[in-house]
Queue: 4 jobs
Job 1
Amino acid sequence: MVSSQWIQLNIEVSPQQTEQIEDAVLNAGAVSVTLQDAADQPILEPGVGETPLWDSCILTALFPATIDTSTTEQQIQANLSFIMCSSWQLVEDKDWSQEWKKHFKPIACSDGRLWICPSWIEAPQPDAVNLRLDPGLAFGTGSHPTTMLCLNWLEKQSLEGKTVIDFGCGSGILGIAALLLGAEKVWAIDNDPQALLASRDNAQRNDIEDERLITLLPEQIPPKAKADIMLANILAKPLINLSEQISNLTNNNGQLCLSGILSHQVDQVAAAYTEKFIFYPSVIEDNWAQLSAKKRR
């Protein structure tokens, strides 16, 4: 028999039903509510202030195991305008505050020169360049193909003394990697203040001085911010919309690395930059693409 302090109610919902069900389960005594995908539907990086949901969701409400499930379910149903499809499940006793850490392991980039290491795990290769990272609210842990494509590209560049712009910095992983690999300075730019906070925290975790990684909102970019290496791992549409600004922030003969692009979007994104850049062959991994180019004189 499973012993547990908690029991959870799993409910199949549509995005339009989530708010009503959330209110109903909280009023019935739920201590937490979470949503997850019910159909393996990907959601890419959301815009600031957006909370996109899947077409079909599972809402999970956590209750103390001592409740009367029948009475609780009747109370919830009485506050809904539709019949819910649900099931109860005992929750295994674990230290949930630490459980999520099991999903993050050290990751080696292509040449093995650079490793991305969760801060709580000993570096497998102490003599390598080890980037210490805590996954947070900001996008970018090193595990996604778009991030790894950029890291693999960075690892092969000559970065000594270079100024880098990480446009759409997320967790700061690309800018921090560039500094650990020899870059002199990074301008880390994002329109989400949470991303800038995560970038600063991760920079401190890697003993990087504040003056080497400067975090900015897009409207705060000073005229002197020019890149020898421009990194932009965002999505195809913003890459196209920002092409003029990204191009102008890149020095002549500067290197450009773009990702967050699906393989069928390569030509469309490259077309927005070809007036000022000469492109190299794209690199594809799991249907994601990374583009690199050199700015014309």
Job 2
Amino acid sequence: MDIKIRIVTIEDYDSIYELWCSTEQSKRALNPVDDSREGIERYLKRNPATCFLAYTEDNTTAGVILTGHDGRRAVVHHLCVHPGYRRMGIAHMLVKKAEEALKNEGISKIFGLVFKDNEAANSFWEAEGYTLRTNLNYRNKSLDKDVPQGE
């Protein structure tokens, strides 16, 4: 199958949201504010060159990666490949494209968050060369009542 990759635009939102909802692991990472159309539009405006969509020749969304940075460090906020398109190298292609874009913007370090019980994703990231940091605690605080605090 011929998979193409391009920059994400806000016009892709509906297909991306549908993709996120196609898998339980991605769906559980969503929140109603940051992952709303408005939230993703804000994100894309701040990160116009580091988010990529993988699609088929008939324009079916096969995968997406949202990466952004603060000028120092980058974060993979979402990586998802549709279950019907897995094991085809799409996630690897998306990660490499995002890493290249971030490097072009002067970023030298990138991290991502993966649920501990998502064995497939943890194995994938390990194979991509992302090491597990055990000397840090991830802390968060919700500033919006509609955004869950998390476990």
Job 3
Amino acid sequence: MIYTKLSIVFKSEQKPPFFIGSQLRGAFGYALKRVSCINPSFKCDGCFATTNCLFYDFYEAKSVYRKYRFDFELGKELYDFSFYLFDDVCEKLPYIVSAFNLMLTKYGLGKDRKKYENFNMFINGKSCIEDDNIRLPKDFIKEFKPTKYHPNILIKFKTPLRIKRNNRFIRDDSLSLKDIINSIYHRKLRLTSKELQKYPYEIKGEAVKKELYYQELIRLSNRQKTKMKLGGLMGEMKIENIDKNSYEFLKLGEIIGCGKSTVFGLGKIEVEEV
């Protein structure tokens, strides 16, 4: 599994929204369209270039899996977020960086379109701003490699986790390790453009403690002029005697996310050894 991680940090005069995912995705999309669109009308319907347009792939294309996600925590005092690219779209990093730069310096954030000149930008954890210029490294594509195995872990759900079972979102502590592993496994298959199939290993591990709660989030869709609910499970789950394959997929989940609506920053998990 290959990926690229772009991170941006900056302070704002006003505290950012509790949930910045909707604001960031909307502002980024506006800037990305200006970077990638070659149609003078800026309209996607009937456009001659949709088969080779990054904005169309990220926002407009139907029945496709988006190979990116936002990553952040809720309720931060400053803007501190990451943007992950996966599989073949990692090569599009120059367009992504240009769009975020325009978003901050030219188009702005929020209702008042607040602009920012001073921000820190990192590629895979290393600063890419030198003498007020953005310089991309030659090698910016990383490959996920499993870390050292730990049998006893704590899974932290940092943003709402939206996983369906029997076509309904799980909203209580019936959430199981199997639900989480299957979600990450299927997400990996989709991100690498592979057919869905059953998880090939036996899932072992006992959930000895669950401290979960349902966190509701509301997103206002400017296009549809409606409010959308993006709630899910947050909290912690302690697992003992987890098998090595399951552990490695959980660590992969820290990178690719888990569940639905990851493009808005949902499904962020962290795995700690106990």
Job 4
Amino acid sequence: MRASVKLAITLLLFSATVTTAYTLSRTPSLLRAWAEDVRVLAGVELRNDGSVRLENIRDWSYTRDSVVSKRYFDATYDPQDIVDVWMYEQKLGPAGLISHTFLVFEFDASYGTRRYLGLSVETRREIGEEYSLIGGMLRSFEVTHIWATEADLVTRRVEFLDYPLARYRLVIPEEVRSRVFAKLASETADLATTPRWYNTVTNNCTSSLIRYVNESEPDAIPLHYSWVLTGTVDDYLGRLGYLDPESFLAITRDYLATNELR
């Protein structure tokens, strides 16, 4: 082997070693200059009667050009009152192999304007920081739970950022819906005191949600490449029978211009 090739390999291995050591040495934090949309953490109170008190539920409103209002509110939810769970999928990139997914829990009509409550597992970015797949593997972002109204999560992406969404109703037994909601709330409470890293491969927006489902109902969703290639998770869940095929709805700017979200 030529000396120049040996030197190149040595430098490459050294660089990889230094990068790995630096990455592993970093620790997650709650104290950074956070981007405004992920700055406020949700507060969680798990009550003895099984209900969940959530503080700082985000309810921002958007146009195509700006954030119109930045409202938060507090509310109490009983997991037993969930009547449906919806999955939204935001395809990223031309190949569609990666996507962002989030859930919306539909409560009974007595909840009024609080009826559709969303949970999005996201990177907690610092001011001026942009998400990247590589950065997500190198401990560049903490993970956070954004509890928000369905209108906030949907119109932020569709109207403000111009990302079309697909919506599906999830076919999940009633008791599992309740356990998943309680598990998500408990994890949100933990993240408020014990920060963790987001990871593109092992702890992303989709694999996190699947993990919470499997912790609520063991082995409900077997390990699959869609946990990483998240743009294929709709096909996988469909084959497992967890998606109602008749419920599919494509939500775009054009759709919202002439239709209500619900």
